[in-house]
Amino acid sequence: MLGVVRKKMLGQSLLKIRPAVSVLRSYSSSAKHMTVRDALNSALDEEMSADQKVFLMGEEVGEYQGAYKISKGLLEKYGPERVLDTPITEAGFAGIAVGAAYHGLKPVVEFMTFNFSMQAIDHIINSAAKSNYMSAGQMSVPIVFRGPNGAAAGVGAQHSQCYAAWYASCPGLKVLTPYSSEDARGLLKAAIRDPDPVVFLENELLYGESFSVSDEVLDSSFCLPIGKAKIERVGRDVTITAFSKMVGHALKAAEILEKDGIDAEVINLRSIRPLDRSTINASVRKTNRLITAEEGFPQHGVGAEICASVVEESFAYLDAPVERIAGADVPMPYAANLERLAVPQVEDIVRAAKRACYRSVPLAAAA
Amino acid sequence: MALSRFASSSRSGSLLKPLSSAISLRRPISTDTTPITLETSVPFTAHQCEAPSRTVQTTANELLTFFRDMALMRRMEIAADSLYKAKLIRGFCHLYDGQEAVAVGMEAALTKKDCIITAYRDHCTFMARGGTLLEVFAELMGRQAGCSRGKGGSMHFYKKDSNFYGGHGIVGAQVPLGCGLAFAQKYSKDEAVTFALYGDGAANQGQLFEALNISALWDLPAILVCENNHYGMGTAEWRAAKSPAYYKRGDYAPGLKVDGMDVLAVKQACTFAKEHALKNGPIILEMDTYRYHGHSMSDPGSTYRTRDEITGVRQERDPIERIRKLILSHDLATEKELKDIEKEVRKEVDDAIAQAKENPVPESSELFTNVYAKGLGVESFGADRKEVRATLP
Question: Which residues form the Dehydrogenase E1 component domain (chain B) (predicted)?
Answer without folding.
Answer: 68-363
